[in-house]
Amino acid sequence: MKINTRKAKDLSSKQKGTMFALMDKYYSNLDEQVFLTDLSEKDVIFLLLNKKEEIVGFTSLKLFTKKVDQKNIVGVFSGDTVIDKKYRGGLELPYAWLKYAMDLNKHNDLVFWFMLSKGYRTYRLLPRFFKNFYPHYKNKTPLEIKNTIDLFATDLFGKDYDSETNIYKPAKNYNVKLGKKEVNEKVLKNPHLRFFATKNEFFWKGEELVSYCEISKKNLKVYAQLFYCLGTINLLEVY
Question: How many domains is the chain partitioned into structurally?
Answer without folding.
Answer: 1
